[in-house]
Every structure is written in C-alpha cells, then in structure tokens.
Sequence to fold (107 residues):
Amino acid sequence: LTNGVRRFYRSTRPSSASAWSTPLQLSDLATAQQAGGPALGNDGTLYFHAQRGPLQLFTAAPAGSGFEQPVAIEELGAGFDDTQPHVDASATHLVFVRQGRIVEATR
Fold:
C-alpha cells in the first residue's frame, strides 16, 4: 500500500534452482480498492480479488510485460465477499473463499 494505492508486483526466475528477480510493480493493476489474493494460471492469467461493492474475483490476461485490464468473473458474482482464488492447471476448476467458507466452481 503506497499513498492509499494497493500494488501488485511480479518476480520471475528462469528455473526453480535460480534466484528470483527483483520484484517489478505491475502499474496497470494498481488500485485504491481493497485487493489481493493473486494467483497465476498456467497460461499466465492473473486471478485476484478486488472491491467493487462486495469483494469480487477478477482475471487479467497477460499482455507483454504486464496484464490487460482486469475483468470481473461475473458468473460467480452473488453479492458476497469472494477472495483468495486458486485455479487448476486446466483453468476449469476454481477454488476460492466466500464469506469465510471454501467454495468450488467448475466449467
């Protein structure tokens, strides 16, 4: 949190035996709203939660060295606080927390 803005950062490494790079701010995802719970899908899509009314789940597709504009996962929006998304390798199974309970969604 810097000056009221929540920031996401990215760090990479060429192999699991290598050191992590210096974290770089993802300025295209900066938000003054409550946000967090970042998780990466196998295709590089970022899953996270942010507050737009209740906490909602969002995705942001990779674009160059950053991400495209976040898109709400509307089909899961039920007016509850949804946080901490985790997606499986096929991106067809999503586990997240809704109102303090673990919830699963599939496509």
Summary: The longest strand covers residues 35-40.
